[in-house]
Design a protein that fits this description.
seven-stranded mixed β-sheet; alpha/beta; globular; 10 helices; binds magnesium ion; about 250 residues; binds adenosine-5'-triphosphate
């Protein structure tokens, strides 16, 4: 079961936007997608149609003696029949501290997935912008970790940090890749400087670049999927192309 995570220590770079749209695009392409929303901010859950709720959340299925099986946590996205979500919730901030006490915490995700009675075609994971117990568990498990890199000053700073965290945690296999987000082809000098810096990085860069798009931003502000609000907007094609590129890379069938 291939798995793809979206992670950086830098905040606001597009982890949730890319994760939620790749999830929707792969569901639209006919895949059965499971999204684990491991960010207490729960923005991916909101974008995919789950109101902030008191109900079960993904962290209830993690840990030494989990309160719930994954089967009892996962719900169908009201926006996509083929998209299943283990939702995030604000109370997960406390649960993350508890998970940190557990000696097997790096195994938290594969252990939880064993309590799911069906096999998704792909597991996607969104993470908070920090290296806590959730992010560590994700970096340890994911076959493919995608670090969104925004165009602009300090863009590459976060990449080095996530790379060393990933190398320290992931024992074998797996791949870390950079996805350029908020791309603006008019800022040619900035883009050249970024290309130059990325050439020296040991992290491969995905072919698809996601442009800065007002429609993507507006959709995000309204907790919507841009495919539904502005299906012909700039950036839509690129988000779907990103989903295809990642699916190929992770071996989704
Ligand atoms: N390509 C894009 N074009 C326009 N706006 C974008 C794009 N990507 C992301 N945004 C906007 O940037 C903001 C931050 O994006 P997002 O929430 O996905 O980042 P994040 O890395 O998940 O943040 P956090 O670290 O807080 O979890 C949001 O308002 C989102 O709508
Ligand atoms: Mg986020």
């Amino acid at each position: 079961m291939p798995s793809i995570a979206f992670s950086t220590i830098k905040g606001g770079v597009g982890k949730t936007t890319l994760c939620a749209h790749v999830a929707a695009a792969l569901a639209d392409a006919g895949h059965r997608v499971l999204l684990l929303d491991l960010d207490p901010q729960a923005h991916a859950s909101l974008v995919l149609g789950l109101e902030s709720r008191e109900g079960p959340c993904v962290a209830d299925a993690l840990g030494a003696r989990p309160a719930r099986r994954m089967d009892d946590v996962v719900v169908v996205s009201p926006k996509r029949p083929g998209l299943f979500i283990a939702p995030g919730a604000p109370r997960m901030a406390t649960q993350e501290r508890e998970l940190f006490q557990w000696g097997h915490r790096l195994q938290a995700i594969p252990r939880a997935l064993k309590t799911l009675s069906w096999t998704p075609d792909v597991v996607l994971m969104d993470t908070p912008p920090s290296i806590g117990a959730f992010t560590e568990a994700v970096l340890s498990y994911a076959d493919l970790v995608v670090a969104p890199v925004p165009t602009g000053a300090f863009a590459l700073q976060g990449l080095g940090e996530i790379e060393s965290a990933w190398r320290g945690i992931r024992e074998q296999g797996g791949e870390l890749v950079a996805a350029i987000n908020l791309w603006d082809r008019r800022t040619t000098a900035t883009n050249d400087a970024m290309d130059e810096a990325l050439k020296d990085s040991t992290v491969p860069v995905l072919r698809t670049r996601i442009p800065r798009s007002e429609s993507i931003n507006q959709a995000g502000l309204g907790y919507e999927v841009v495919f539904d609000t502005s299906p012909a907007a700039p950036g839509v094609q690129e988000l779907r192309a990103l989903a295809q590129e990642l699916a190929r890379r992770a071996g989704v069938r």
